[in-house]
Each structure stands twice: as C-alpha cells, then as structure tokens.
Amino acid sequence: MSDVIKLLPDAVANQIAAGEVIQRPASAVKELLENAIDAGADHIRLIIKDGGKTLIQVVDNGAGMTEADAKLCFERHATSKITRATDLFAIHTMGFRGEALASIAAISKVALKTRTSDDEVGTQVLVEASALQSQGPCPCQPGTNISVKNLFYNTPARRNFLKSENVEKRHILAEFQRIAIARPDISFQFYQNDQLTHQLNKGNLKQRITGLFGSNYNQRLIPVEEETQLLAINGYAAKPEYSKKTRGEQFFFVNKRFIRSHYLNHAVEQAFEELIPEDAFPGFFLFLETDPEQIDVNVHPTKTEIKFQDERFVYQVIKSAVKRSLGKHNVSPTLDFEQESAFDDIITDKNRPVRPPGIQVNPDYNPFQQEKGMAPGGKTLTGRINPGQWEQLFPGAEEVHEITGHQGGKQTIISPDWEERKQDNGQKKFFQLHNRFILTPVKSGMMVIDQQRAHERVLFERYMDNIASKSATSQQLLFPENIRLNEQETEILKEIIEDIRSLGFEINPLGKCSFVINAIPAGISEDSSLQECVEGIVENIQKNRIELKHDKQTNVVRSLAKRLAVKHGKALTEEEMSTLADSLFACGAPEYSPAGKPVLTIISTEELSERFK
To answer: CA torsion 239→245→248→254, rounded to 10°?
Structure first.
C-alpha cells in the first residue's frame, strides 16, 4: 500500500490560512492597519476601491523595512513581534502571528514599497498568489506603502460569497472605526473610490468619537473612570436616552485592542438596568488596561476574542464603574443622606429674628360638640345630626332603587344612572388602562387592545397602500430642517432614500453626512424631532436586517410605522381610542402587528365569572 499522507505545498497551506484570517476585504484592512500601528506610524492613510475588492492600500510613516525584511515578511509565521513561546503571554503589539501578509499574498496581487529612515532608497516587492514576481530598489518616502489588488482573484468561489459594494464598505468602515477609536494619538485619512470621507486629526478620545460619529455625540457621553490594582477602566458611556435597538455602538478595548465579549457587554447592560427599555442596548466606548500576563489574546485567528484570568472580577469592576458614573452625573437616581431636601427651597429674611415654632391649643374644645355651620344645600345644622334625616344632606338625590341579591337579601345601587351609563345610544365605551391598553365591552365579554401595536398595524397598511397607489401625501415644512448622521447611518439612508421619499418625505443629501428635510408625511407632527425620527427608522432597518429577511421596501415601511406609532404611556381621549379601534378593524390583518405579535384579545364573560367563584 502506498503512502497517502503528503505535505501540503506552501501555496495551498497559505490559502487555508487565508480562509481563517482573511474572511472578507475588511479582514485585510484590519491586518494592514494593525501592522502600520505596530511600525510606530503616527499618520496612516487608507484607500479602498469597490468595497475593497479592487484595491486596498495602506500608507504609513512608520519605521519601514530593510530589503531582506521586505521579502521575508511574506513568509508564513515570519514576525518581528515574538521570538519564543513565552512571548505569547506578554503581547504588547497588535499583530504577532506572522500569518497576515502571507495569507493576503496567497489570494491577491500585492505590491509593497518600504524604506527605513536610515536608507537612501526603498525596496519594492511584487507578490502574486504567494509567488515572488520581482524585487528591487525604488524611490519612496520613509515608511511602508502596501497595495492589495483583486482580492480572492484566484479563489473565485470565495469571491462569489462577497456581498455588494455597500455591504463590504460598511464592514471596512467598522474595522476602521475600531482601530481609529483605539488610537486617537494617530491621525487617519480614509479614501473611498478616490473621495476623502474621513480626516481624523490627533486628539483625545472624545474628539475622536465625535469625529467619527458626529458632533452631536459631544452631549451624549458621560465619562467612566475606575482604577484597581489589577485593572484600570476609562472611556465613555452614552446617556440612557440615547440607547438603541442594536449593539452597533458598543466598543470594548483591552490594552488598545478591540475585543468582542457578550459577557462584558452584559456587565454594562446590568449597570443600565431599569434606565433603558428591555429591548434597547446602551452605547459605550470603554478601555481596559491590564497586565498582558493576565490575558490570553491567542485564542482566535482574528484576535478579537481574549480570555481573562479572573473574568468575574472584571465583570464586577465594569458594572460598578459604569453604575457609579451614571449616579455621579445624575443619570441614575441617588440618595443624599447628608442633606434634607425638604429645606432646600426655604427662603428666610436674615434681618428677622429667629423664633421657635409654637403650638396653639383651645382649652375649651369639645370633640363631641358640633359647631354651628352650614350644611350642603344652604341649610343650617346645629348640634348632632339626626341619622334618620340623612336625605337632607343631599338634596336633589334621585330615588334609590333596590335590587334583590343572593338569598333574598337586598343591595343598594350606588349610582342610580348605572343603566344609562352602561348603554349610551348603542355606542360602545372605551377605557384606557395604564396608558397602554384600550378596553371596550363586546357581546361575549371584554376586548383588550394594545394601543402601540394597533397603531403600528394601521400605519403599516396605510403606508403600504400609499406606496402601491403612489398616493403618499406630504406636508411642507415652514423651515427646512437639517439632520446629521454617522457614516454607517448615512450609507443606510442613501440605500433607502427613494423608499423614504415614496412615503412622503422630501429629503436630500447636504454634504458628507448631512441631509435636509423639506417635507414630511402627512400625519407627523411638525413639533416631532426629525433627527430622532430618521435615526429611529435607520436603527430599525439595521435591526430588521439582522433578525428578519424582509425586502427593502417592507423593511422601510415597518420601521417608519414602528417609529411613528403612539407609544405605551401615551394618554388617549375616548375619541382617539374610538378612531384607532375603527381604523384597526378596517385593516386586512387587525389581529397581529407587522412584527407578528398579537394586537388584541377578548376576555369572555365566563372567564371573568370564574374569577369570582
């Protein structure tokens, strides 16, 4: 029998490694940016074309490489970050595996130009599918300039799994944001299809966050700081009123390395408990600094998951730090035992002498003696009241009817017009319970309607009909309103802008991440915050994309209906409740909300009777 086990060629081994490390263009961007940071660069330029499929280029002013290093860096497990196994437990750099460049070169065409500050000329290396094509001297600036062209060109099956350009651009932007937030001491430039989309100058963390997500974040953040012997925490958390339906703005960094951890996310969410709705997620930008020996970053090829020696301790520190920060900045309710708030608003005249309070007592007071006074109806009463003549206290009262109760006993009807109130010309009465449920009697018992879900169903079908008939009506704004979104929200809004317009919005781009709204759908109050309205629509679009598979148009209509529906806690008049109920039962599917949740239920008279047995 012949031998069947063979050693894989380097090209095949590199492609297998590429499958673990380089999953999409964003993965290559992450590795190249981390290499630039490890090289000591303080200015990095990122250039992409066609969502990274055609070109990914990173230019830095770091240390650069010599001629020998420029060639060796494309070999597997070639790295300058570690030299022995024990170094894996004291990692201070972003990259250390020595697989990134080898994996990228195995599935693309790579051109590398690099020069150290000590060399007069640089070195250029061309690699294609792990094969060295050429190497020689070239003029270039100190630092490294690496271009990755036609990613996955030699693995067409892998390339076919890539998403659209906009989707890949969003993934690249997410990686860019994570690295840029972690290093506010480095200036970044980001070009997409020859357009400069981000110019981030050196500054502090708050300036970097506002530079990435918009100046309105300046008022949304509260600082978080805590320091223990094993762990230091600093950063920012978003105020509870700016919580979102998705986890998009949750950033954890350990020793300036972005990580994903559902366990630590839960710690922050517990700190926000009872401050945000159950289906909302807080935003935060938290940095953890600890001894590298206390963590293991070598548990995943992409280095986004790490292990702590004592995760429970880290959990408690994070939860306590965030909760203390919320209380310190008067976001969560706190008790001050040092001062009695009842005396805060007392104003005294400093020239008036202080007199102790006195108590006046009437020594002739007799609790059994009724003072002379006026009874209701203008009649004077003296002495004790005669219980037998109680009717005189309530003149004009209607005759009290009596009904026969159990065992022949008699009961008195409290309200003599009960029968008239129960039926008002045949019209049903509506009542609101806890500003959430609408109650109305029906023939078989009592109907309970969830007001928010009912309104969502009404708006959803109305907007779908408007789109189908192209009859959406708009109301012009007296003063057009400008809104500003972050980069990710801007990309989503640009994708759905035509669907938004078909619903009655007149919205147009105004600059890089700004838009102007000239008209809104009829029915939306002009006093509503259009900034929050559009942010809510985009946020629901993101959530529905993750959880559901609706088409784009249905997704937009669902998001708009959810955002504009009357919310729980809103008090409604009887006329509003009646109109909402009538509109609901005119819908094609009144029993369920657009999300498939029940809108109403009927509690039968038999069920109620069972409760009183």
So the answer is: 60
**Rounded percentage of the chain residues whose pLDDT exceeds 90:** 33
Question: What is the distance between the alpha carbons of residues 490 and 21, in angstroms, rounded to a whole number?
Answer: 29
Is residue 278 within 8 Å of 174, Cβ to Cβ? Answer: no
Q: Cα dist. 512→147, 195, 212, 483, 533 in Å?
A: 26, 10, 12, 12, 20
Q: Is the pLDDT of residue 336 over 60?
A: no
What is the maximum alpha-carbon separation in the chain?
124
130 and 269 both lie in a single domain: no
Q: Which of 176, 203, 230 is the last residue of a domain?
A: 203
Q: DSSP for 535-556?
A: HHHHHHHHHHHHH----HHHHH
What's the whole-number mean pLDDT along residues 176-192? 95
Copy the structure tokens of residue 522.
């009829």
How many structural domains does the chain have? 3
116 strand-pairing partners? none
**Full domain range(s) for residue 550:** 449-600
Output the DSSP codes for 365-422.
Answer: --TTSPPPEE-TTS-EE-SS--GGGGGGGSTTPPPPPEEE-GGG-EEE-S-TTHHHHH
Closest CA to 104 of 43, 199, 19, 47: 19
**Domain containing 318 — which CATH number?**
3.30.230.10
Residue 162 lies in a domain: yes
* 98: CATH: 3.30.565.10
Instruction: Express each pLDDT in 304-319 by its tens digit.
Output: 778 888 889 999 999 9
Residue 283 pLDDT grade (very low, low, confident, very high; cuts 50, 70, 90) = very high
Identify which of 183, 210, 245, 182 has the alpha carbon closest to the alpha carbon of residue 513. 210
CA distance 465 to 274: 39
Going by C-beta distance under 8 Å and a sequence separation of 6 or more, which residues neighbour residue 582? none
The SS3 of residue 140 is: coil
Side chain identity at residue 497, one-letter code: I
Average pLDDT, the chain: 80
Residue 405 domain flag: no
Give the integer Cα–Cα distance in Å for 578 and 431.
10
Beta-bridge partners for 448: 439, 601
Helix (H, G, I), strand (E, B) or coil at 423: coil
User: Angle of helix 552-564 relative to helix 451-469, nearest 10 degrees?
Assistant: 140
* H/E element, 209: helix 205-213
For residues 173 and 148, what is the distance between their CA atoms, to the nearest angstrom? 17
